[in-house]
Amino acid sequence: MESILTKQLSFKIGAKTILDNISLQVPEKGIYGYLGRNGAGKSTTIKLLLGLLEDRTDAIFIQGNSLRTNRTRIYTNVGNLIESPCYYTKLTVFENLKYLDIIHKKGNKRIDEVLEMVDLHREKKKKTNALSMGMKQRLGIAMAIFHDPQLLILDEPLNGLDPQGIVEMRNLFCHLNEQGKTIFLSSHILSELEKIATHIGIIEGGKMIFQGTKHELLGQVDREVFLRTSNPAATVSILQNAGFSTVNFDGEDVVVSIGDDQQFDFVIKSLVEQQIAIYGLESRGADLEQIFINLIARAND
Amino acid sequence: MTNTFYTAFLSEKYKLLRNREIFGVLIAPMLLIFAISAYIIYDIVNSGGASAIPNPWKVLLGRYVFQFFYLLYPILVALFVYACCDVEYKNNNYKILFTVPISKSNIFFSKATFILLTLLFSILFAYAAFLISGYLLSLIYPVLGFQNYDYRQVIFYTFLKLFITLSAIGMIQLALSLLFRSFIYPIGVGMFMLVFSVLVAQKSFSDFIPYTGAYNAVMNILSENDSFARLDYCNMVMVIVFLLISFYLFKRKGQF
Questions:
Q1: Enclosing domain of residue B146
Q2: For the complex shown, is ipTM > 0.95?
């Protein structure tokens, strides 16, 4: 079952179409990276998923329940952080979580547990306006995960975090995912998304231009394999004869473009058969950033 | 069960009690009464002694207290109600409020109940302070004659009617605070209506302006009025009408 399912979700403001037939399929227990340029419709999608914008077409289903008719029930199992973190400025870090505890009834132990998880336990008694930007972001994440939701919807959760904070949050998301939580997140930091996402959705101009697993996305383009062999000239010749069109020698390594795993297997076997020793091998795929830029460009052609 | 009025009320109470403005509306009227009592004592000491006054509850304590109250109380209420809405405006906290598993109606009515209960406690504290001040003055200066008049019924009705007035003003200010994010508009409208209501207090249509009730509190205590009038019934209706208008505005707030 999908944790989030939208059935041709569309949304207009006046005559302007913001979202056009978006059919999201976020699998349970996955980490779904939602990508798009500024103004592509990411935040609108997220606001619709959380009921902060009204979907009159009943196209949104969270954990199998229609958002339109099961709103409050759905919220017991969904945590969120949208754009900038929300917290009450007149309350301390602890009091902000205590406010949620009154609603969710998880107990003070859970407050301490969550503060430990986001490394904010030392700031427990601080007023929120005394926190740094990164700490406020951590508080926002703490508030999102406080009630131990099965689904986390996070819009730019890494904003304002320092490199160490980003690594910590990445580990936290992976840890939560290992516990069986589904994470739907949008981020501009594509390298981070590439590291943790299992599924990717790309939106451009309100339309979904790609949706699938990360491997499906990365498999859309050739990767370069760098080979250090005992005889580079023979290696180039063997590979060219085998039909590989893009083979170069950069003075140190032979670089060959490979489409899929079968081709990779073929390259290795061919070299071994010709008794060429392989001293080094490195496979470099196009990164998510490059693929994202290519897909956006293709969509706009 | 999370989605209950009780849970919503507890969470709103927890959050809103941390507003400094709440102490203004709860304590300031009470402190004002004690300050006026202190001034009365100072005045007696300064003038060389006390002399008998016909009904000092009305002429001495009541006159001073309610002349301050009709200007002070509506402004305190406006500030307090705005502060209750402002906590949600800051950081766009409506995003928290509308994604907790509590219905919007439970959240709204718990907020409105909290406001009305705070106003009730404020009036009760002021009422108690008024009676205590009178009794203390009767003990310190028996010659003033506080003990010679049983004015409790008029005092009770004056405070009751003031509570109804403040509840109506509170609900109007709630609607304004939900409508306008900026501090200027709800407070500005509140102050304008306060001045306007004093200017038109003698006109018959003033009964339909809840803010007039604050000015009428002075008249009530001075004219020993212990019955409900058209203004009070209008104010009761205003509480309900503006509560519903505020609810509509609150529900509409969900659309960012």
A1: 5-46+56-252
A2: no
